[in-house]
Amino acid sequence: MRILLVEDHQAIREMIADHLRERGFAIDAFDRGERALAGARIAPVDAVVLDLGLPDMDGMQLLSALRALQPQVPAVIVTARDGMEERLLGLNSGADDYIVKPFNLLELEARLRAVLRRVGTRRETRYTLGEITFDTVSREATVLGKPLDLTRREAALLEELLRVPGQVITKDRLEDRLYALEDAGSTNALEAAVSRLRRKLAGAHATVSIETKWGIGYRLVESPVP
Ligand code: CA
Description:
CATH superfamily of the largest domain: Response regulator
Distance between the termini: 34 Å
Largest sheet: 5 strands, parallel
CATH topology of the largest domain: Rossmann fold
Bound molecules: calcium ion
């Protein structure tokens, strides 16, 4: 899943970005509202994490502008202001949740996942297909009960495929979900990640496999037991 993070405080921005990347999200991080808007015009995101006090614009103004591009995008506001009035103003203006600084990164992550679940079509904490399970919180996959050793990116790929088992996801959509703007050459990277995940699934004797729809994308299918 892909998150737009806007926070002008460098240390806080990097701390949030590092944590969320480690937890399997692709992060587009920006320090200014205008830059974030430019980024959002290039690629859609699954959710927004937004600082209220930005140097070039008010965070709520930015959220309105982002929602003009992506009307339903869920948002978690990160703010140093803890006045009740501002909090209520934030929620009335369409933020889905807010968190006051200083905050715990795990709490921010939990709130982000909660707003993603609220808007999502199928955003569960645990996915299963055949003998594969994937826990979106612990980021652990198992095949026949045994843990599958996956990189962050492979885990994110498996998660996206498991969300819509049997359905083809286009390469463009997968790239949007898995790769942030700063990740260059994502088509080759996606193909490489698919091959690695395929090898690992085969190595674990999974009957679930990734099928290629040439020129379109990929889907996860259960193959009959030989
Ligand atoms: Ca700020």
